[in-house]
Every structure is written in C-alpha cells, then in structure tokens.
Design brief:
The chain is α/β, with parallel strands linked by helices. Helices cover 36% and strands 18% of the residues. It binds 1,4-dihydronicotinamide adenine dinucleotide and 2-oxoglutaric acid.
C-alpha cells in the first residue's frame, strides 16, 4: 500500500457530474415531469442551461435562476431524487468509499447544487453535513420549490470563491470538479491545485485550465500516493488494437476505463516494435506478428488478445517468459468458417467460379460439364478440431460421407470415418478440406506429393493457414487439370491493408475461388470475438484468472479475499517456498493460495489478510526468479 502523505491536503470536491455522474437539477426535472408531455423538452432546456453555466458561457447566477424558473418540482420529488442519485455516484468515487471513511474532516463537498439532495448521498461516504457547502431551496405553503436562498454565498457569481474565503482552510487545498466554477477556486488563489474531473463529462474550457486531468478518482489517489481500492488506475492501462476488430472491443475496454488506441490494418514488426512502448494490452488478428523483437520493446505489456482462433502469429513462449498471457477466441468464428467451407464445396462442385464471371461478361454457358451433386461424395477433413468436427456434422446433413484425419485422437462424430494416415484419406476423398492449426511443423503440409496422391478431378479447400500449402504446387495441379478446382481463403503472404494489391499464382486459374481471409469475417463472429477476448483479458487484469489463456497455466480463481498477490516466476525449484518465507517473516496470514506451473513458468496467486506491512510487497518483488508481480487490493 502506498505511503500516505501527512497531512492529507483538504479536498474540495464538486457534487454534480463529479461526485455523481449526473446533474441533480436535470434529474429533479426529469422526476417532477414524469408522464408529462413536455418532460423531454423541459429537461433538455434545463440541461442546456446547466452546460452553459458549467462551461463559463453563462453567468452562474443567471443559469441557476433560469433553471429553477423552469423546474416544476415539489418537496416530495427530492426523496425520489436522492434515491436516484445514490445509484449514480461516480464509479471511481463509489469504489474508493474506504478512502472517504478513512479521512473524515478533510473532504468538503462544495457545490452550487442543493443541500437537500447532496447531504443524504454523501452521508453514505461518511461526509457529515458540516462538510457539505451547498445552496438551499425555498418552498411555498404547498411544498412547491419556488427558488433558492439568495443570501447563501453559493447562489452568487463566484460563489465557490466566497465560500472558500469564509472557510479559511489552513494548509494545502486541492479542488476537484468538472466545471468552470471549480477552476475559479484555484484562479482566486484559494486552492493549490485544480484537478479537472472527466470521468463523466469533459469540458474543454475547464480541462485547458487544469493542473491535472483526472479520468477517474483512482488517478488522483494514485498521483498523491493515497490509499486506493485498485492497485493501479485503470485509465493508465493503454490498449492498442490493430487490424480492425469489431468496435465493440474498444467500447468494452473504454467502459472499463482503459485508454484505447486503434490502428486500421496491421503493422509490420518494426512498426509494432516502435508503437508498443507503454502499451499494456495488445489486440491483434491473424496478420500481426508478435515476435521476440516486438516483445523486447514491450515495456508494460500485461496481456495479448488474439481476436481470432489461430495464435501461430504470436511468439507464445516469448510472451510466457515475459509474464504475458495470451488469450484468443477459440470458438467465436468456428461456425462462420464451417458455413464458408460448405458453400465453397457446393460452388466448386457446380463450377460457379467459371460461370459467374462469364455471366457478368454477357456469356450464356449452360452446360453440365464437370458439375456434380455433393450428395454421396466423400469429404476428407484434415484436422478434426473445432472447425473440422463441426463441418463434419453439417456436411453429413446434406449427404456427404465424411472421412477425417487428425494427428491427435478425436471423438468421431455422426457417421464420420477416421483415417489412420493422411494417405488413406487422400486416396478416397472427392473433396479435401484443411482445418489444421498453423503450427510451424505444418508448413507445406500439402505440396506436390500430397496433391499427386489426390483423386483426379478432386476439389481442394484451404481455410486454415497460408503456409500450410505450397501454393506453386497447388497452382501446377490446377493448371494441369489434375485437380477439379480449389477454394483458398488464406495465403503465405497477405496484404497488410485493403489498399495493398493481392498477388498470387492462383489468380486467373480455372474453377478457383479466392477470398481475402474472410473465413471468420461475419457480423456474428466478429461481435462474439470482440466480447469474448476483452472479457478474458479484463478478468485477468482484475482477478488474475488465466482460464482459457493459450500459453499460461490455467487457473480459475475463487472470489478474491482481501488482498491478492499475483506472482509469475521462472519455473525453478523453491520459488513458492521463498514467497511463503517472505510472508511468514512478515507475519502475513495467507487466506488462500493457488499454484500452477508449466515447463517454463510458475503462476502463484496468494490471497492474504488486509493487514500487512508495506515492506512485504517490496520483499516479494525481490524474490529470486520473479518475472512479474502485482497486487490487487
Ligand atoms: N480462414 C479463417 O478466417 C479462419 C481460419 N482459422 C484456422 O483454422 C484453424 C483450425 O481451427 P480450429 O478447428 O478451431 O482449431 P483446433 O485446434 O480445434 O483444431 C485443429 C486440429 O488440427 C489438428 N492437426 C494439427 N496439425 C495436423 C496435421 N498435420 N494433420 C492432421 N491434423 C492436424 C489438431 O490436432 C487439431 O485437432 C485455426 O488454427 C486457424 O489457423 C480459424 C478461424 C478462421
Ligand atoms: O478474421 C481474422 O482476422 C482471422 C481469422 C482467423 O484466421 C482465425 O480466427 O484464426
């Protein structure tokens, strides 16, 4: 835990849009006008006045007077407002409730809003009425709100300045808020620093004048070495997304409070090495190579997300040795690839790749030459994993007889027949489709020999990885007429962006369907991937859970108890004992401990009591063979 500076400066915190996510008066109008036809229009008018007042465009006193003139509220509406506001406390304030409780008497809520609704909301954070400085409503005999107490300094222009002068605080004062009136406290010399709070709203005029911009209250606590709920402010976590994953991914990361940068298309090794400094989370698809050189430049990398199935483009061992787990989306686009393969099989069997361009050129070529039904034909699936086995089921439904070959033992689905060798499959199949993974040993798995062993006139599909097939050998058997056609979605070299042209020997060959690596490019798959991968990564960041990481020992953790220590180390004997020796020497009580190792690394999670001396953290960082260490509070 960071050391607390003594004494803690006085904190002057604004209420509307800072302590809470919303403006109290806007919400009060919304409540008071529920069910009225003019609700939307009046609330919008009040909001506009609030905004003009907050950005300094309109005199504050005018903005307040005009808003109250529009407000048709009564005393009973205030109780409803309080309940609503309790549910709208800013996320980072809510999560750091413990901080407010720990420092009674140092935090003032100074607001141009109204005491009647502020007091009960901040009371839940241990802030008592004498530390709330705000306006007060006036009411008529029927409890209608009629206006505000005009003798209150906060109802006047420069009200916060007047109020701070009256307070006459001795010692450093920091002001936090989203509005111009908060900045004015600093301008008048009544605060030593002004922090523009942008978690809920960003006003350029206010940000421009701030000493610091705070995307969250965590950032304030972190900068000032004050006790906080998180070990690290989320707004400091930088995400770099390449190759256009669905925008939902960026949205989820932003919702979590991370900073997100996107680069359309891919980056080559040098470009990525130059961009990766300071990046905590890297998101890529199939093209970007995460190499040793890239990892060397990655000084803050916490996790890599492959927004796809294949992870052959990533140096998985290199990541592991750097303490970086990699997460992919192992089944989010499976069905999309299966549907594409099935469509391609039928298109090739009917020689559509030749007929379609002819029609576009005005040529009517009605003939049955070389066209056949797929019913009863033998489909040979090479690689019977998630995609291969799903294709097996769907293909049988349209009458194909399935043969498969896999290097691993696999559950045989439906009536599929297992082949003991690749040769056995090649000799029988009318259609051969590749669904192996992209491991290096699969480079040129299909070359001249394998094609020669296929039946004359057979069809060939590669939706797996480009380097798995010798493209020149494929082009030769298509030109010679030995194969009846091919569909290819993946290539040894693929253009980096849609602006780069596609070069291949396969271009222009008869009955060849070429697609630009779109096997998984459907709305459904991309949306699923864009949710699946960020969820895994955020779970890892927040809890240490490595479930479904492709390179890390998988640990699914129970709910965190008190503090959680996350320790990644080289897998050599004695590290766990060293960790526990440090804990024992500092009399730290262990509530739970979980360890998993693989041949390279060990991953230990230790939940400990809330009470511990800060030196224990440094001592754990210094344990020999540590790769990475972090604490979750
Ligand atoms: N075109 C596209 O857009 C897409 C392509 N893919 C590619 O498809 C591949 C397969 O995906 P999944 O089925 O989800 O993976 P998976 O890991 O479930 O299945 C791969 C299977 O291939 C087997 N295999 C590996 N090498 C082999 C070999 N030499 N001979 C026979 N079997 C072998 C494995 O034992 C495993 O059963 C991915 O790794 C990826 O490269 C995946 C999604 C989209
Ligand atoms: O859509 C992509 O970028 C890659 C799809 C793919 O090849 C995969 O999921 O492995």
């Amino acid at each position: 835990m960071p050391d607390t500076p003594a004494p803690l400066p006085y904190l002057i915190i604004d209420f509307d849009s800072t302590f809470t996510q919303v403006e109290g008066l806007d919400e009060l109008a919304d409540i008071a006008l529920t069910g009225q036809p003019n609700q939307e229009a009046v609330v919008a008018a009040i909001r506009a006045l609030t905004d003009r007042g907050m950005s300094g465009e309109l005199k504050f006193s005018e903005s307040l007077r005009e808003r109250l003139a529009l407000l048709p509220a009564r005393r009973e509406h205030i109780a409803l407002l309080v309940e609503r506001l309790k549910g709208k406390v800013s996320e980072s304030i809510r999560r750091n409730r413990g901080f407010f409780e720990q420092f009674p008497g140092r935090v003032y809520i100074v607001s141009s809003g109204f005491r009647e609704f502020i007091e009960p909301v901040v009371a839940e954070f241990g802030i008592t009425p004498e530390f709330v400085l705000a306006n007060t409503f006036t009411f008529d005999a029927e409890d209608h709100i009629t206006g505000f107490d005009t003798t209150n300094p906060l109802s006047q222009d420069g009200g916060k300045i007047l109020q701070l002068r009256q307070l006459d605080l001795q010692g450093p004062v920091y002001a936090l808020g989203d509005g111009y009136t908060d900045y004015q406290i600093r301008e008048a010399g009544l605060a030593d620093r002004f922090y523009a709070f942008t978690e809920n709203v960003t006003r350029d005029a206010v940000v421009a004048r701030a000493d610091e911009v705070l995307p969250s209250f965590d950032e304030f606590l972190y900068q000032n070495k004050l006790p906080m709920t998180l070990s690290y402010p989320k707004n400091r976590i930088k995400v770099l997304l390449l190759e256009n994953p669905d925008p939902r991914a960026a949205e989820l990361f932003r919702q979590e409070g991370y900073q997100v940068d996107t680069v359309p298309g891919g980056l080559d090794e040098d470009e990525l090495a130059a961009r990766i400094e300071g990046v905590s989370i890297l998101g890529i698809r199939s093209k970007t190579q995460v190499t040793a050189k890239v990892l060397e430049a990655a000084n803050r990398l916490m996790a890599v997300g492959a927004f796809c199935i294949g992870t052959n483009q990533i140096d998985l061992v290199g990541c592991m040795q750097k303490g970086v787990p990699v997460f992919n989306a192992p089944f989010s686009n499976t069905r999309s690839v299966v549907e594409l393969a099935l469509g391609e099989i039928i298109m090739l069997a009917r020689r559509i790749p030749e007929k379609n361009p002819k029609m576009h050129r005005g040529e009517w070529d009605k003939s049955a030459n070389g066209a056949f039904e797929v019913r009863g034909k033998k489909l040979g699936i090479v690689g019977y994993g998630n995609i291969g086995s799903q294709l097996s089921v769907v293909a049988e439904a349209i009458g194909l007889q399935v043969l498969y070959y896999d290097v691993a033992e696999k559950l045989q689905l439906g009536n599929a027949v297992k082949c003991r060798t690749l040769d056995e499959l090649l000799q029988q199949a009318d259609i051969v489709t590749l669904h192996v993974d992209g491991r290096q040993e699969n480079t040129n798995l299909f070359g001249a020999d394998e094609f020669a062993r296929m039946k004359p006139g057979a069809l060939f599909l590669n939706n797996a990885r480009g380097h798995v097939v010798d493209v020149s050998a494929l082009a030769a058997v298509l030109r010679s007429g030995h194969l009846g056609g091919a569909a290819v979605d993946v290539f040894p070299y693929e253009p980096k962006t849609n602006q780069e042209s596609f070069e291949s020997e396969l271009r222009g060959l008869p009955n060849v369907l070429l697609t630009p690596h779109i096997g998984g490019s459907t709305a459904e798959a991309q949306r699923n991937i864009a949710e699946f991968v960020p969820e895994r990564i955020m779970q890892y960041v927040n809890t240490g859970n490595t479930q479904q990481s492709v390179n890390f020992p998988n640990i699914q953790l129970p709910e965190q108890q008190a503090h959680r220590l996350i320790h990644i180390h080289h897998n050599v004997p004695g590290v766990l004992a060293s960790i526990n020796n440090v804990l024992a020497a500092h009399h730290v009580n262990i509530l739970g401990q979980y360890l998993k190792t693989n041949e390279h690394i060990g991953y230990v999670i230790t939940d400990i009591d809330k009470q511990y001396e800060p030196e224990v953290i440094q001592a754990l960082r210094e344990v020999e063979h540590t790769i990475k260490f972090r604490v979750l509070y």
